[in-house]
Amino acid sequence: MAIDPNQEFLVQPVDASWLQCNIECQEGCPVGTNCRGYLNLAAEGRFEEGYILAREPNPVAAMCAYVCSAPCERACRRGDIDRPLAIRAMKRFLVEWHEAAGIPDDMPVITPRDTAVAVVGAGPAGLSVARELATSGHQVTVFDQLPYAGGTMLIGVPAFRLPREAIEMDMRLVERLGVRFEFGARIGREITFEQLQERFDAIAVCAGAMDAVPLDVPGNELEGIQYGVDFMQKANLGEPLEVGANVVIIGGGYTAMDCSRTSLRHGAENVSIVYRRTRSELVVDEEELGETEREGVRMEFLASPLEILGEDGRITGMRFIRNRLGEPDATGRRSPVPIEGSEFVIPADTIIPAVSQAADNTFLPIEAKFEINRGRVRVDPGTYATNV
After folding, report:
1. 319: DSSP letter
2. Quick one: DSSP state of residue 176?
3. Helix (H, G, I), strand (E, B), or coil: what is residue 139?
4. Can you tell me the distance from the alpha carbon of 248 to that of 254, in angstroms, rounded to the nearest whole number?
5. What CA–CA distance (Å, rounded) separates 118 from 143?
6. Ramachandran quadrant class, 186 (left: phi over 0; alpha: psi -120 to 50; beta: rest)
7. 15 has a pLDDT exceeding 80
8. How far apart are CA 233 and CA 252, in angstroms?
9. What H or E segment, with its residue span, contains residue 63?
10. What is the pLDDT of residue 388?
11. Confidence band (pLDDT; 50, 70, 90) for 16?
């Protein structure tokens, strides 16, 4: 049957609810990556086109190809039949294929402006902001206290999970847009915030949250405690690292998993992760958890720390109490409730709390009177502008 070229059809624009119901994988991605598109292109052998489509909305696509939590896969409809498509693995293939092929990335045509913007922090947020600003024509300089770009990806994620070449690839693309990087620059020390305000028309603060939140239990002054973020930073920057034979890690996130596997690589004999909820409440995916367990890390669920034990100022173990799950808390997860009389001890000479992190706002000038909310600078949710 021939199609009438003059036939008219009713066309209606779709809204967010339609996208959520019909393109759930793309809707699940924080940057809206067209994962269906690059999967189809890869299936046709059009690998470079697939790479371009995967890279287009994502300034840190190479890093995400290795360590993204893959919300697209959780939303994948194929999971209703058997298992989700390996979307992140395909992105990784496309990234590695592109790099191996030596094909240069196409750079956008930029109309320069006379505005200068400082970006504080060269992590994923800082790189993303720098790319958007540079693409719009602004003159961008990124400052970071670390010796290289990557932020949390550099000092918080081990190289066996995230090759440093992936960080280099993402940074190189931003640099080719004309963005300048100044490393080893601690704002508030080598460079003051006031100096940034004098030199630049605007400042984007992307400093991250790399300050460990102290574990508030008796005995936390004993020798042998290393907080997760500090532990991983030393390991990733090649600094001296003290790891005992028996390591206990508190927490259930990616930092806890990374600390456990890094401890084994630095000579630990027995490594335990203690988490106050159940396996199903862990924030890490099954792939990461499975790799951790296969390397010999012991998981202890439904237990909370009570006290760090020690002799002569040095850690000897940690006392815990077992929990049961009670009513859901504000996040929707069931709250752990201690079970009276269920205390137990795990021997340890190294304890690594990997529970929570906070932002370091000490470089911000007090006289500027930034509004702070729960340790974070308050911003307009629509523009991310501060009150200053």
Report:
1. E
2. T
3. strand
4. 15
5. 7
6. beta
7. no
8. 19
9. helix 61-67
10. 81
11. low
Q: What is the DSSP letter of 202?
A: E
> Residue written as tokens 């003051």?
192
**Phi-psi domain of 243 (left: phi exceeds 0; alpha: psi -120 through 50; beta: other):** beta
- So what's the pLDDT on residue 308? 97
The SS3 of residue 208 is: coil
Q: Which residue has the tokens 């994502």?
A: 58
Under 8 Å CB-to-CB from 382, ≥6 apart: which residues?
Answer: none
Nearest of 195, 184, 199, 193 to residue 143 by alpha carbon: 184
Determine the distance from the C-alpha atom of residue 167 to the mean position of all C-alpha atoms in its chain, rounded to a whole number. Answer: 13
Provide the β-strand partners of residue 325: 336
Please state, in angstroms and rounded to a whole number, the distance separating the CA atoms of residues 388 and 382. Answer: 16
217-276: per-residue pLDDT in tens? 999 999 999 999 999 999 999 999 999 999 999 999 999 999 999 999 999 999 999 999
The pLDDT tens digits for 86-125 are: 999 999 999 999 999 999 998 999 999 999 999 999 999 9
Q: Note the pLDDT of residue 178.
A: 96
C-beta separation of 259 from 348 below 8 A = no
Write the pLDDT tens digit of every residue in 304-338. 999 999 999 999 999 999 999 998 888 788 899 99
Domains of the chain: 16-101 (1.10.1060.10), 116-209+360-377 (3.50.50.60), 212-356 (3.50.50.60)
29 closest CA partner among 87, 98, 80: 87
Between CA 263 and CA 232 the distance in angstroms is 10
State both tokens at 259.
């600390």
Pairing type for strands 314-328 and 344-347 reads antiparallel
Mean pLDDT of 347-359: 93
- At position 188, the amino acid (one-letter code) is G
Mean per-residue pLDDT, 47-52: 97
The 3-state secondary structure of 92-108, one letter per residue: HHHHHHHHHHCCCCCCC
The token pair that represents 295 in the structure block: 């390397």
CA 334 to centroid of chain Cα atoms? 24
Q: How far apart are CA 145 and CA 187, in angstroms?
A: 8
Out of 17-21, 28-32, 270-274, 356-360, which region has the weakest mean confidence (pLDDT)?
Answer: 17-21
Q: What is the DSSP code (8-state) at residue 78?
A: G
